[in-house]
Amino acid sequence: MKLRPTVIALVALAGCSTVSITSEWKDPAWRGPPASSVLVVGVARSDTTRRLFEDTFVGQLKAAGIRAAASYDSIPPGEGGSAKLGDLVKSTGSQAVLVTRVQRVEDRINVSPGPGGPYGGGFYGWYGGAWASTPEVTQTTLVTLETSVWDARADKLVWTVNTRGVATTDIPKATETLANTLIPKLKADGVLR
């Protein structure tokens, strides 16, 4: 099985504390059968992040009754790993390859105005009103991930979703959240058994 170099390109993988599916696609011509074994590939610049992601997602797939393997032991980071990917798919007996990568990271700043302006009554009344009307400013970092599933038997992209969530540094917890969102969807869509 071959993946395009753009899919294997290294990017910083970030996790999300909660995720929602923002877009999805399934190949309407793909008839299956659903996969019962999956090779998990996390695309990340950090080898530690990749290992945490792959190990956690593999554990979640196994808990859902799917045979799964991580790619990091056999596939080195970077584009050079694509040459070994086909051999790894065969040696693990994987019927599908699940690839997750960061698509976008964006900072959002929200300014909530206070409940009104400064009030009269001299300086003391003005000061109390000014304090009460100070806006609240919050910053949130949102991460959009793209997760794709390739049918290794047909060497074909069959399913992809984009998810969005608030960034976190707890990669295992974020990966569990992502897996708990995607695995039931993959089963419902007939991609996994």
What does this structure look like?
With 193 residues, the protein is of the alpha/beta class. The chain has a single domain (5-103, 142-188), classed as Anticodon-binding domain (Rossmann fold, 3-Layer(aba) Sandwich), CATH 3.40.50. Helix content is 32%, strand content 35%. The protein has helices spanning 5-8, 47-63, 82-92, 122-132, 171-188; strands at 15-26, 37-42, 67-70, 96-112, 136-151, 156-168. Strands 1-6-5-4-2-3 form a six-stranded mixed β-sheet. Helix 2 crosses helix 5. The two termini are 21 Å apart.
What's this model, at a glance?
With 193 residues, the protein is α/β, with parallel strands linked by helices.
Topology:
Blueprint: H1 5-8, E1 15-26, E2 37-42, H2 47-63, E3 67-70, H3 82-92, E4 96-112, H4 122-132, E5 136-151, E6 156-168, H5 171-188
Parallel strand pairs: 2-3, 2-4
Antiparallel strand pairs: 1-6, 4-5, 5-6
* SS strand fraction: 35-45%
End-to-end Cα distance: 21 Å
Radius of gyration: 22 Å
Question: In terms of structural class, how would the helical and strand content be classed?
Answer: alpha/beta
Number of domains: 1
Large-scale geometry: elongated
Tally of separate helices: 5
Strand arrangement in the largest pleated sheet: 1-6-5-4-2-3
Number of strands: 6
Secondary-structure element order, N to C: HEEHEHEHEEH
Sheet bearing the most strands, described? 6 strands, mixed
Oligomeric state of this protein: single chain
Give the name of the CATH superfamily: Anticodon-binding domain
